[in-house]
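Bug report

Summary: C-alpha cells for TIR domain-containing protein differ between web form and batch submission.
Environment: batch mode, default settings.
Steps: 1) Submit the sequence below via batch. 2) Compare with the web form result.

Sequence submitted:
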Amino acid sequence: MVELFFSYSHQDEELRNELEKHLSLLRRQGVIDLWSDHRIGPGKEISGEIDQHLESADIILLLVSPDFLNSDYCYDIEMGRAMERHESGETRVIPVILRPCDWQSAPFRKFKALPTDGKPVTKHQTLDDAFLDITRAIREVIQQLGPASPVMEHDDSLLTGDTSKPSLSQRVRSSSLRVRQEFTDRQRHKFLDEAFEFIAQYFEGSLAELEARNADVETSFKRVDANRFEASVYMGGQERSRCGIWLGDGTSISKGILFSHSGLGAGNSYNESLSIEDDSFSLFLKPMGMARIGKGGDKLLTAEGAAEFYWGLFIDRLQ
C-alpha cells in the first residue's frame, strides 16, 4: 500500500476534504493510505507525528495556495524536507495547485503540477472536474511506483501479536471530519455578489483579448452599474453577438444571475439564469438549463465555471 501525505494550509481544509473524497475509491481498494494531521491522536506530539509520516510517505502532495506559500511550516519545513526526499529518490512530490498564486517561482516549479497544465482547482468549471483530473493522475503515479507493502506490515503491534485494544491516544481516526452546515442569507448574498463581480471581470477581460487577437473584431463592454453589464461583439462593423447579464431582484421569477441574448432591456425576460445551490458544505451556482437543454443543467458551478458557462452562450454565435 502506498502512503500519501497531504502538506497543506488549514485555510484550504475544505478543498483538501473534497480531494480526499475523490481519492476514497483508491483507499477502499487498498491502494493508498491517506495521511494528514487530522489523524494525529489526542496526546500525541504534533510535530513528531508529522515528521514521522513525512519521512515514510511514498507520495507527498503539496496543496499549493497563497496560504500554503505564506505558511513558514508548510513552505520551509514540510516542503523543504519533501524536496530533499524527492531529490534522493525516496518519495514522489506532486504539487497540486488549489488556488491562483505565484507558484511558478517556487522551488517545486520544475515538477509537473496538477491539475493539468497547473490550472488551479478553483478555476475549473466544477471542483469535481478538477479533482477527477488529479485522482486519475495520482492513480497513474501509483501504478508507476509498482506494488508496495501494505501499511499494516509496519505496525509493530501486529508483528508481535499484540491484539489488545489501543488506548484513546493511540486510536486511528478518519481525516474526514467536516460536518454539514446551513448557510445564512448573508453568506448567500455575499457569494452571489462576488460571483457576479467575477463574471463581469471575466467578460471584460475576455472581450479585450478577443479584440486583440482578431483584426476584424471589435468589442464593447458596458458596465451600467454594480448589478448590470452588457457585452457585444462586432465583425466588419456588424453586431454578431450580444448579451446582458444582471443580478435579479430576488423575486421568484427573477433571482440569481440572469442572462439575455437581447441585452439588458427592461430586465423582465432572459434566456438563462444561475441560482445559488449548496451541497451542505460549499456554495455553488446552478444553471436553470433553458439555453442548453440537457447540457450542464445538473452541474454545480464555481464562479469560474459560471463565467465560462455564460461566455460559452455568448461566444457560440461566433463559432
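Above is the batch result. After comparison, the two runs are identical; trailing whitespace caused the diff. The first strand starts at residue 2 and ends at 7. Strands lie at 2-7, 32-35, 59-64, 92-97, 217-225, 228-235, 238-247, 257-260, 272-278, 283-287.
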